[in-house]
Amino acid sequence: QVQLVESGGGLVQPGGSLRLSCAASGSIFSIYVMGWYRQAPGKQRELVAHITSGGSTAYADSVKGRFTISRDNAKNTVYLQMNTLKPEDTAVYYCALVAATTYWGQGTQVTVSS
């Protein structure tokens, strides 16, 4: 059974930065695509970024140039570095491991407000 635990969320002012982490259980982490999603109040969950086992990345247009996804397979951890945060980035951020089924973390709140 895969378990994902996110951390690093919080309250930050516009223009600030946060780094989210997602630690995965299990020894098969390195072979799967990992992703970060977010869901704002009243909106559908959307893909923010994903990274393949080989390190290829893709981003939503709204975060390109501001967010960076990375992974450390030795630590079974995926990261999301978020810079130049905007109020519209406010959401619950979820980590996902994409296998035959998709596993989700519990989410971490990110609030961008002055």
Unreliable stretches covering 5 or more consecutive residues: none
Average pLDDT: 94
Range of strand content: over 45%
Count of separate DSSP helical elements: 0
State the shape: globular
The structure class reads mainly beta
Q: How many β-strand runs?
A: 11
State the end-to-end CA separation: 40 Å
Helical content band: under 10%
Q: Topology as H/E string? A: EEEEEEEEEEE
Describe the structure.
Strands 2, 4, 5, 6, 9, 10 and 11 form a seven-stranded mixed beta sheet that branches. Strands 1-3-8-7 form a four-stranded antiparallel beta sheet, with no helix packed on it. The mean pLDDT is 94. It is 0% helix and 51% strand. The chain has no helices and eleven strands. With 114 residues, it is mainly beta.
Question: Topology, pairings included?
Answer:
Elements: E1 4-7, E2 10-12, E3 18-24, E4 33-39, E5 46-51, E6 57-59, E7 67-72, E8 77-82, E9 91-98, E10 102-104, E11 108-112
Parallel strand pairs: 2-11
Antiparallel strand pairs: 1-3, 3-8, 4-5, 4-9, 5-6, 7-8, 9-10, 9-11
